[in-house]
Amino acid sequence: MRSYNPDLTPPWKRSAPVPEVPADRDLVVEEVATGFCGAVIRCEAGTVTLEDRFGKHRVFPLEPRGFLLEGKVVTLVRPSAAPARPTRTASGSVAVPGARARVARAGRIYVEGRHDAELVERVWGDDLRIEGVVVEYLEGVDDLPAIVAEFGPAPDARLGVLVDHLVPGSKESRIAARVTSPDVLVVGHPYIDVWEAVKPSSLGIPAWPSVPRGQDWKTGVCRALGWPENTGAAWQHVLSRVTSYKDLEPALLGRVEELIDFVTAP
Fold this sequence. Notes:
11 strands, DUF3097_C, four-stranded parallel β-sheet, 7 helices, alpha/beta, 266 residues, seven-stranded mixed β-sheet
C-alpha cells in the first residue's frame, strides 16, 4: 500500500512559489543574502557570476529564492543551450534585433587609414548601419583641406574627421586648424597610431612600448614585443582582441561617439 504523508504545515506558513528566471547574460539582479547587485556575465553549473557597476565580480550559487529581480524574489536557473540574442552592441548601445540598415546619409565620417576604419567598424559597425553613416579612410590627412572642399559639407551633409596624434603643436593639429566649416568636425586622439587606442590589458601586455623617433612605430612595436615584423599580421592580432568598447581607451571612445552624434544630428 502506498504511504500517504500529507503536508500538515498551515497554509499561512507555507512558502509561496517564486518564478524561475534564466540567468541570461546582462540580466541585472541582486543577491538576497549580501545585497550585491550586478549584471550576469557568466552562468556555469551551479553558479552565476555578477559584475557590478564598478567592474567588481562575485560568484554566487544558484540557490532557490536566492535573488531579487526588480525587487521581487526569483530563482535563477541556468539558461537553455540556445544562445540568447545580445542586448548590447559592441559599442554598448542597446541592440535592435532585426533592424534594417538605413539608407546611407549624405554625411560621412573620415578616418586616416584602413586600420582606423576596421577598428571603428568592429566596435561601432552595428550602430553606424542603423544610422546610415558611412566611414571612409583617407590614407593620411596632409590634403585634408582640399578633401573637405571636394566633399562640400552642408547642414544636411555633415562631415566628421578622426585624426591620429591630434595634440598641440603637431603637424596634424596645424592641418586640422585650416578646416573652418561649421558643418565639419575634426577631432582626434593623442596616440601616434590607432593601435595604441587598444588597451594593453586586452592584449596581455603591460604597456605599449616606447619607440625611438625616426623609427617606424609599428615595426618598432613588433620588435619590442617580440612579434614577427609583419605589421599586417600584427594588426590582425591586435584587432582580434577587440570585442567591445571595453577594450578601447576612453580617449578614442569619446571622440568616435562625438563624431557619430555630429553627423547624425537633425
